[in-house]
UniProtKB/TrEMBL annotation:
Cellular location(s): Cell membrane
Stretches assigned to coiled coil: 66-93
GO molecular function annotation: efflux transmembrane transporter activity
Protein name in UniProt: NodT family efflux transporter outer membrane factor (OMF) lipoprotein
Organism: Chitinophaga dinghuensis
Keyword Coiled coil annotated: yes
Gene Ontology cellular component terms for the protein in this record: plasma membrane
Amino acid sequence: MLNKINRYICFVGLSLTYGACNIPKLTGKTASTQVPDGYTAARDTINSAQIKWKEYFTDPNLVALIDTALKNNQELNITLQEIEISRNEIRARKGEYLPFVGVKGAVGLDKVARYTSEGAVENGAEIKPGKEIPDPLPDYLLGVYANWEVDLWHKLHNAKKAAITRYLATVEGRNFVITNLVAEVANSYYELLALDNQLEIVNKNIQILNDALVIVKLQKEATRVTELAVRKFDAEVLKTQSLQYDIKQQITETENRINFLLGRYPQPIVRNDHSFEGLLPAPVHAGIPSQLLANRPDIKQAELALSAAQLDVKVAKAQFYPSFGISAAIGYQAFNPSYLLRTPESLLYSLAGEVVAPLVNKNAIKATYYNANSKQIQAAYNYERTILNAYLEVANQMAKISNLEKSYDLKSKQVEALTQSISISNDLFKSARADYMEVLMTQRDALESKFELIETKKQQLNAMVNIYQALGGGWN
């Protein structure tokens, strides 16, 4: 017996040595988290991402829309189910390194062939009167069994940790969806306000053109202009009226886009369309770039995905080592139900341990190991790319905010000058000191400049939303 135990120990030792010596060496990758010290020369640790979205957006109508979207948006609800799937994966991984215990009950019937070794033994055995073995032989079984794999190399433990890490990554994925959803609703809302103001300007311009058309018709009757001038003004009125319906279509589509984000069928979007011109972009504090690592959900998600991939490499590496299993069973078995619970006659039990180690043809294990390493390298590059993308998004939006502010000031002056030129051109036209084409071009330039001013204002508000999103705000 001692010799058998020694041989068994030697076999296990050789298996461990062989498995450990034949594990391929891999070249992994460590992700770099280095970022510049600041976005500009001036550095400020105050970060707008720390502000809750209900405080960052002050329009009560917009706040109500975002609140509804966070409750009803289908994409967000789909993401929540992804979290539940990841949570269930943790339960499955946790159960793998705990003992499996089950109850077994069975009923069977066994007819042994006469001309077999078992049949010959049964028929050749000495049988006492009243103790004959039934033929065919019934079989009744009732017992409890258990199996347990000893997690000596932390394979199962690391698999559970990887599942937990992926669960946390799905939570960050949900936060990222929330951040994007808040930004998308806000951007669509400001686009809707801009369209309302464009429609209002078009309506005012139509009225101005109609008034000018009346004057042109009177001057034509006085033979001061020709029919060409009347037709030109009439065509300009029709063109502007057509633009009115184009804007109305854009308003309908934008309203329905918001309704889709809110998870509801088309209905009017409550808004204060007269407040657009007075809206001022909220002051933004970008903080320092290193704060992105803690604020941006997509960066944290990429970091957790990298951690899970590193654990997967450890799990795959553990496949090269022997696995240790223990199995046990206890119960009752008899060919007659009346004998089933007799103790100790019908009692059965078993206890066994096993060691399974890969020796030859480990191609499948090596392939899994190589794949796990490649995925870990992919996750490292993805983490670095996510950090770089986040930094560039913030830098771009900060430059955009600065440039749009200067552009808006200049376009405001342009609109003011062109608005004054409308009155001047009309007065000059009435006194025959200006051509009708000058009046038309002035009207057209003024309309375009007002549209551009509204578009610039909308871009300013969008930049305010996008910088908040780029800094990682909106999910908390």
